[in-house]
Amino acid sequence: MTGEPAPGEFALIDRIIERLGDAAARDILVPPGDDAAGWAPANPGVVATTDVLTEGTHWRPDTMSLEDVGWRAVATNVSDLAAMGATPEVLLVAAVLGPAITVEDIDRFIDGMAAACRVHGVVVAGGDIVRGGATSFAVSALGSARIDRAGRALVLRRDAAKVGDVVAVSGSPGASASGLAAIEAGRAHEPAAGPLLTAHRRPVAQVELGLAAVVRGIHCGIDISDGLAQDLGHVARASDAGIEVDLERLPLHIHAMSMFGIDVARSYALNGGDDYELALIGRADILESLAAPLTRIGRVVADHPGEVIVLRADGRVYDPPAGWDQLRMRPWAPA
């Protein structure tokens, strides 16, 4: 191991809290450093999620820096809360440090995490650190949902799509996959790759959009982490309804098209994953009233319940490959 010698566990925890700066939760009921954290949720409906990033599965040293990994550790979890229409508040972070990780590496990870915390309005309330055979980071994000007068939590759910609803997405799905493809193809140096690399390495969770949607009366949503087609499939199955997507309406990133062509860009949009944009399903007039730019891409139908059908302009079915599966981990190729 090179670099500064690793301190003991508790000295390293103190170092991390100090380096987090204002991204550490210092003003909660029980701040970092005790057996457990304690805080008062902004709203009575608590929403929680957890996610793991593992070296070799979710990143490699040639695809992103440890600052980027720290950023994504925050953004991916906060995105799950955004997909529920919840307000993110605190994070718990557990780290398994592989044999080659140095103190400087940990500093870089913490710097990326702190930067993402500031952008997303969350703080780190605690966590755990151990040594292991490979490096991984597990983050739990906790937030709160508003409660209506009947005592029900106002959240976006996968099982709330109704026949006649429209489907809309934020951003440009496929941008992140295009960024990774640029790295894999040795084209990361090209000017057009810049925004795509940012989409892959530094995604921003759509928290304000999720909050606005649930306040305005949208009940169904999901974040695009495993590929648009696969994630809409989760909605279709949970809601026992069919979803039809218009291929021509997909909001493709201009640089993804310029680098890889429209057909590949479409495959990345439908199956790439790691975008952390939101797909919202609801009444057209409500979706159109939201301030954030959304693109209407499809509709909820009574036919083929539980399935997503992607239609070409001439009505023929477009059959893209499957999206990302954390356990299957089979590579897919663009159509």
Chart the SSEs and their pairings.
Elements: H1 9-20, E1 45-54, H2 66-82, E2 87-97, H3 103-120, E3 123-131, E4 136-145, E5 166-170, H4 175-184, H5 193-201, H6 207-216, E6 220-223, H7 228-239, E7 242-246, H8 254-260, H9 262-271, E8 278-282, H10 284-289, E9 294-301, E10 308-311, E11 317-318
Parallel strand pairs: 2-3, 7-10
Antiparallel strand pairs: 1-4, 2-4, 5-8, 5-9, 6-8, 7-9, 10-11
Describe the fold and architecture.
There is one protein chain. The radius of gyration is 20 Å and the shape is globular. Strand 10 and strand 11 (317-318) form a beta hairpin. It has helices at 9-20, 66-82, 103-120, 175-184, 193-201, 207-216, 228-239, 254-260, 262-271, 284-289, and strands at residues 45-54, 87-97, 123-131, 136-145, 166-170, 220-223, 242-246, 278-282, 294-301, 308-311, 317-318. Strands 6-8-5-9-7-10-11 form a seven-stranded mixed beta sheet. It has 335 residues and is α+β, with helices and mostly antiparallel strands. The longest helix is centred in the first third of the chain and has 18 residues, at 103-120. The protein has ten helices and eleven strands. It has two domains: 9-145, 2-Layer Sandwich (60s Ribosomal Protein L30, Chain: A); 158-318, Alpha-Beta Complex (Phosphoribosyl-aminoimidazole Synthetase, Chain A, domain 2), CATH 3.90.650.
